[in-house]
Amino acid sequence: MSAPIQLRPDETFLLNVGPQHPATHGVLRVKMQMDGEYIVKAETVLGYVHRMHEKMGENRTYAQYLPNLSRLDYLGALGYTHGHVLAIERAAGIEVPERAEYIRAITVELNRVASHLFWFGAFVMDLGGFSPLMYAIQDREHILDMLEAVTGARLTYCYYRFGGLYNDVDDDFIEAAKRFIPRMRKSLKKYDALVSGNIIFQKRLEGIAPVSAEMCRKYGATGPVARGSGINFDVRKNEPYSVYPEFDFDVPVYHECDSLARYKVRMDEMEQSLRIIEQGLEKLPDGPIMVEKKPKTIKLPVGDYYQAVETARGSFGIRIVSDGDKNAYRLKLRSPTYSNMHLFDEACEGMLIMDALAFMGSLDLVIPEIDR
Amino acid sequence: MGGYFSDIFYGSKSLLIGMSITFREFFKPTVTVQYPYQTLKMSARFRGHIELIADEDGKPKCVACGMCQRACPSGCISLESVSVDIEVDGKVKKKKVLSKYDLDFTKCSLCGQCVENCNFGALEFSKEYNLASTRKEDFHFNLLKRLEERNA
Ligand code: SF4
Ligand code: SF4
């Protein structure tokens, strides 16, 4: 909703949001030139938590780089580690046992639900509702407990290995996951009645911050942001990897382009993830979880490798240029929120500041992942 | 005008639905754990900092091969060994014995590569999580000493 702006340079002022601000969910800084309550121009400033993850990929071996990937996006870390191991496995020609791939898919989807749940809670809290955050965290806690029981960690997992997994899942995990699915479905209904149906919530998001498909393409936005703008793109469907072709699931797409559409995409995605988990648990084959023969130190043949995966926030890509050594010559991480966030500057011109913060919440930013 | 009244009607209804949900939640049992008065049992695979494993005689199983040190991405492990003469079947043999095993937990990412790379099953994760401190030195562990303390 753009407002008529008559710019009077003497009457605008600069508003600094962040780097320490609860609405930016991390150390992101936004410089906003304001005309009263309206934003004339916004500029995001990055780099407060830059940790040189790409450079670190060049000076340590591929196996030693494993823990780094889970430090990018701490809410949906497994998706990122999945991309890394897939890239190396494909480049080195390692065949992963089927059971391992199924477990990977199940755990990644669980992690996606956990990530969306946390986003849901935080987003509604941005808009002023506190209780949904508590309910979401309670559901998320079940997932974290399950993942802790198999991976040993709650957030920064280092579970996948080249050629398989660190350890197998046990019956307790499978039982817990099976119990979790109906519970989560019930919760989703509750969230729908509590939040999606709420009139204040709807009025605050409907028609707010339209992001056209055109703009998504321009900035390379992916994930729920692009799918809320009518772009039907999901790496799991468009460039299938792992065992995803075996699963029957839909990609939710909404054409309204507003903040509410992005919200709906994520809420629907949780249900789709539950479907994948359900099928995965059903089909889970027996067998080894690690390849038998694997080189002790992994060296990739000379070449240029790229692997994209669909994480909770969009398409994450890892590009490895190898010169045949045991570490990468150049490693590039394409993080989805980095592209998604750049929409913000253009899209929020002429917007009310309260709407802009709601818009920022709907982009689902995780700052360490933007800065890497 | 019609939209105005239907909004009021729909709005009040949605608020009542919302309130009935929060009201019901109000009477559900508490799930919060009152830490530190209550604690949870850590899961079997929980990764705390690493710890040396003792053999039957209470000596560390570690043979000081240094694989863990080389595998560690963050360089948190430093170990030293001395070679001592031991008698096996009447013959004097040289054997490497671990003399120092330090872990710098400030840098550890709990990746598990050290445990995975140890071919002698000499390392495990502890279940320790109460490690908060404001001093850096508190996170430099002398694992050999800790092992002796556990044996005592
Ligand atoms: S790899 Fe195992 S045996 Fe070798 S030094 Fe480390 S702990 Fe000791
Ligand atoms: S868990 Fe990883 S970072 Fe920590 S000491 Fe072992 S190898 Fe090093």
Overview of this structure, please?
The complex is a heterodimer of chains A (372) and B (152). Chain A has 372 residues and is of the alpha+beta class. Chain A is built from 15 helices and eight strands. In chain A, the strands form three sheets. Chain A has a three-stranded antiparallel sheet with strand order 1-2-3. In chain A, strands 6-7-8 form a three-stranded antiparallel sheet. Chain B is an alpha+beta fold. A three-stranded antiparallel sheet of chain B has the order 2-3-5. Chain B folds into two domains: 1-31; 50-151, Alpha-Beta Plaits (2-Layer Sandwich), CATH 3.30.70.3270. The chains are: A alpha+beta (372), B alpha+beta (152).
Task: Determine the mean pLDDT of chain A.
Answer: 87
State the oligomer.
heterodimer
Please tally the helical runs of chain A, counting DSSP H or I stretches of 4 or more residues: 15
Name the helix and strand elements of chain A from N-terminus to C-terminus, one letter apiece. EEEHHHHHEEHHHHHHEEEHHHH
Measured distance between first and last alpha carbons of chain A:
33 Å
Hetero ligands? iron/sulfur cluster
Q: What would you call the structural class of chain A? A: alpha+beta
Main sheet overview of chain B: 3 strands, antiparallel
